[in-house]
């Protein structure tokens, strides 16, 4: 075996793909255009830089599909989830990280691997040898054009928005308080992982008015705003109804204001720690396409943030993805050019975890093909299998849109003994998935108790 696997893109998916293939004995070259060629959203040249949020979402591997995906990645020795665990911050039942330390950890581990090298340059055409394209939502225009030309159709696109980050020492803690919703968490640090800013009805209504009248980023001629519902700009949510935010990122349930314990907030803005030092907090769910001046004006109307200093304001960028159900086979290869696999967000999965998971699969599948190994199909009952099955054929091609992992992608479980509650059904999904994934990886069979660990 002398073939080298080339991976274009050093984000979550590309880094994970490289790690998995290298651990199978394959020589890998990652091609990353940053920092020579910059993007709107990235700030560094580190691998696996996080640009939208610092959260990998729920870490519950018994009752949540994304938590199950975490479990599967850990079982497969994933570098992304290991780096996340190494740089975790208190976030209740979620897995949030110090984003700068996380990216540095991934960069250090991947570049130190003896089978991996990194080439920092922009790739503008499709290669002929074994390759994985994992360029993510900010694929360069030249490479996107090359992909579109090969696919025989235009790439699809939607717009994604970035939430602002605030300096903790500029927040008025005489108005705000620390508490995770419903006091979730095993430790006091986890139970106080979120910073809360309360609003009464009058303040909330004024905030909505300010959002609806704020100056926003305009699109270039010919561009359209096809947002992904899981990452809507806050002002777009407000346009859907004045109460939308109170039932979304600003819901007041599960929280008690210690400054006014007898007064139930009408709405609550939550902030989550963004670094290990606790000096930076991002405003949860506040992705925005407002212009910078409007952002500072509107966000400073939030009680506790009147004197806020922003380490980063929100922004908007174009996300590119392909129509995977039409273009990819079950091995994640381009049907028209099978030496090329696609991985990550460009395939139409949404989220850091899902992107890294598709990189994990692409890396293993590409390495096995180079080695002449015949891997069995990824079990459809696993989170990995449900997700890859969705993008490579399970989704309706005509209406294909980015998708997070969720139990709606799984084959239904048979609830023996009558109707089961949602918690029981989710546990059945996760137990079944863990057994199938362990078997696919060649790990010892799990009994019921070890599957829950």
From TrEMBL:
GO terms for biological process: tRNA methylation; tRNA wobble uridine modification. One of its GO terms (cellular component) is cytosol. One of its GO terms (molecular function) is tRNA (uracil(54)-C5)-methyltransferase activity, 5,10-methylenetetrahydrofolate-dependent. Its EC number is 2.1.1.74. It is found in: Cytoplasm. Keywords: Cytoplasm, FAD, Flavoprotein, Methyltransferase, NAD, NADP, Transferase, tRNA processing. Residues 5-373 form the MnmG N-terminal domain. It comes from the Bacteria. It is an enzyme of class 2 (transferase). Its cofactor is FAD. It catalyses: uridine(54) in tRNA + (6R)-5,10-methylene-5,6,7,8-tetrahydrofolate + NADPH + H(+) = 5-methyluridine(54) in tRNA + (6S)-5,6,7,8-tetrahydrofolate + NADP(+); uridine(54) in tRNA + (6R)-5,10-methylene-5,6,7,8-tetrahydrofolate + NADH + H(+) = 5-methyluridine(54) in tRNA + (6S)-5,6,7,8-tetrahydrofolate + NAD(+). InterPro entries: FAD/NAD-bd_sf, MnmG-rel, MnmG_N, TrmFO. FAD binds at residues 9-14. Catalyzes the folate-dependent formation of 5-methyl-uridine at position 54 (M-5-U54) in all tRNAs. Belongs to the MnmG family. TrmFO subfamily. This is Methylenetetrahydrofolate--tRNA-(uracil-5-)-methyltransferase TrmFO.
């Amino acid at each position: 075996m002398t073939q080298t696997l080339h991976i274009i893109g050093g984000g979550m998916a590309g880094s994970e793909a490289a790690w998995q293939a290298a651990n199978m004995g394959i020589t890998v070259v990652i091609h990353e255009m940053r920092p020579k060629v910059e993007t709107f959203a990235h700030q560094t040249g580190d691998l696996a830089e996080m640009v939208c949020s610092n959260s990998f979402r729920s870490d519950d591997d018994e009752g949540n599909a994304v938590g199950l995906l975490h479990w599967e990645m850990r079982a497969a020795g994933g570098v992304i989830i290991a780096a996340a665990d190494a740089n975790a911050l208190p976030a209740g039942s979620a897995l949030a990280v110090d984003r700068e330390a996380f990216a540095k950890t991934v960069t250090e581990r991947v570049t130190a691997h003896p089978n991996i090298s990194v080439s920092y340059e922009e790739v503008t055409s499709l290669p002929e040898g074994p390759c994985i394209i994992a360029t993510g939502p900010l694929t360069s225009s030249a490479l996107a054009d090359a992909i579109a030309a090969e696919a025989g159709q235009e790439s699809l696109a939607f717009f994604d928005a970035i939430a602002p980050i605030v300096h903790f020492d500029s927040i008025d803690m005489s108005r705000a308080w620390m508490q995770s919703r419903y006091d979730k968490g095993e430790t006091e640090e986890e139970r106080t992982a979120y910073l809360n800013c309360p609003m009464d009805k009058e303040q909330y209504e004024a905030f909505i008015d300010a959002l609806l009248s704020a100056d926003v980023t305009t699109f270039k001629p010919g561009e359209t705003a096809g947002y992904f519902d899981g990452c809507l700009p806050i002002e777009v949510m407000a346009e859907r109804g004045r109460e939308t935010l109170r039932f979304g990122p600003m819901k007041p349930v599960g929280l008690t204001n210690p400054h006014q314990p007898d007064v139930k907030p009408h709405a609550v803005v939550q902030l989550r720690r963004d670094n290990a030092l606790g000096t930076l907090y991002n405003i949860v769910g506040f992705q925005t396409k407002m212009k910078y001046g409007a952002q500072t004006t509107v966000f400073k109307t939030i009680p506790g943030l009147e004197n806020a200093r922003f380490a980063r304001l929100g922004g908007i960028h174009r996300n590119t993805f392909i129509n995977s159900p039409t273009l990819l086979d079950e091995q994640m290869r381009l049907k028209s050019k099978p030496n090329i696999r696609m991985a990550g967000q460009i395939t139409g999965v949404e989220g850091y975890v899902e992107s890294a998971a598709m990189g994990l699969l692409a890396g293993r599948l590409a390495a096995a093909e180079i080695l002449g190994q015949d891997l069995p199909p990824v079990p459809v009952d696993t989170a990995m299998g449900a997700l890859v099955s969705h993008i490579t054929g399970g989704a309706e091609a005509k209406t294909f849109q980015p998708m997070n992992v969720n139990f709606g992608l799984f084959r239904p479980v048979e609830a023996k003994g009558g109707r089961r509650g949602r918690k029981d059904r989710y546990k059945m999904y996760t137990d079944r998935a863990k057994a199938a994934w362990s078997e696919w990886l060649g790990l010892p069979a799990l009994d019921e108790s070890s599957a829950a660990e």
